[in-house]
Amino acid sequence: MAIDSIPVRPPKAPWKLAIEKYQQPSSWRAVWQLLNTFVPYALLWYLMHLSVAVSWWLTLPLAVLAGALLMRIFIIFHDCGHGSYFKSGWANDTLGFIAGVLTFTPYYQWRWEHAVHHGSAGQLDHRGTGDVWTMTVQEYLESSRWRRFAYQLARNPFILFVIAPLYMFVIEQRVPCARANRRERESVWWMNLALLCMAVAMSWMLGVAQYLLIQLMVMAVAGAGGVWLFYMQHQFEAAYWERGADWDYATAALQGSSFYRLPKILQWFSGNIGFHHIHHLSPRVPNYNLQRCHEAEPLFRQVQPMTLFSSLKSLTLRLWDEKSRRLVGYRRMRQVRQQQKDQFAARHEPPDGS
């Protein structure tokens, strides 16, 4: 082969070069994170068991703290699903299954759905798997009254952050997805069996009513916190949505995934997932490397952070407006509807003097 005909690889994008070294898992960081997360979580369960005999008012704050730790366990589960937590695939899958039992989440099915989310985040033509239901203004206006009602209900904060997480983790994830492969579907049944064994063992040790009530409180806190984080990661005013060939992977990560700058204690409990722009650029970066990666490259620091206070505005945003390229509230939808009515009336207005 002539030298001239040897294909030359194009240079890597700057963000790829900056991110490479942080994609390497660290065994000591991973093990330390396991110790400071799983051990306190087990201890809190023991303390909650003891507190019930004194007062449920003591149990409640312990359950809130346990729920926050369970949210952190889910981030570890999440990293295992990306194969980023340990170097060993077997170790990732084993820990992922164990963390899946604690979070009531079937490992392989969730991993498949989440991979779809990463491959389609910000693509208007590929919504519906592993994301929050998002309609465009025009889609909403063209929908039936029942569909608009269902959408408003799904976007209601109480439904979204209280009812939906419990339904999703406790009920929905007990049923295999028909579109999943055999391994993903079977992982649901294996997880259901593991959960049954755990529930029987914990009920035997703590009592059925006591276990179920404590588990429900812990799951409610972890689910609400987890869904809140996921919502704020992609549902903000200047988010990124595109159709077809206009969609770009790196732009979707840097503009369509938020840099959620939380207070340090919340950043710890959320496993650094607020650096979501880094995570979507490369899911191979484990959570314990996300902040270091963000701080190492000036390109990443150009992403405007969203604070806990400023994120509250996202609760008022409901629909994607393709014209203004912004996530907007229902007021904007009503304005568009009125404009369409005015345009229709102008086109059908009879000539003067008729």
Gyration radius, to the nearest Å? 23 Å
Uncertain segments are: none
Run of helices and strands? HHHHHEHHHHHHEHHHHEEEH
Cross-sheet strand order for the largest sheet: 1-4-5
Separation, N- and C-terminal Cα atoms? 81 Å
What does the main sheet amount to?
3 strands, mixed
Mean pLDDT: 90
Number of discrete helical segments? 16
Topology of helices and strands:
Elements: H1 14-19, H2 27-52, H3 56-81, H4 89-103, H5 107-120, E1 135-136, H6 137-141, H7 145-154, H8 157-171, H9 182-206, H10 208-234, H11 249-256, E2 259-261, H12 264-269, H13 276-281, H14 290-296, H15 298-301, E3 305-307, E4 319-321, E5 326-328, H16 330-347
Parallel strand pairs: 1-4, 2-3
Antiparallel strand pairs: 4-5
Helix pairs in contact: 2-3, 3-4, 3-10, 4-9, 5-9, 8-10, 9-10
Labels describing this entry:
3-stranded mixed β-sheet, 16 helices, 4% strand, mainly alpha
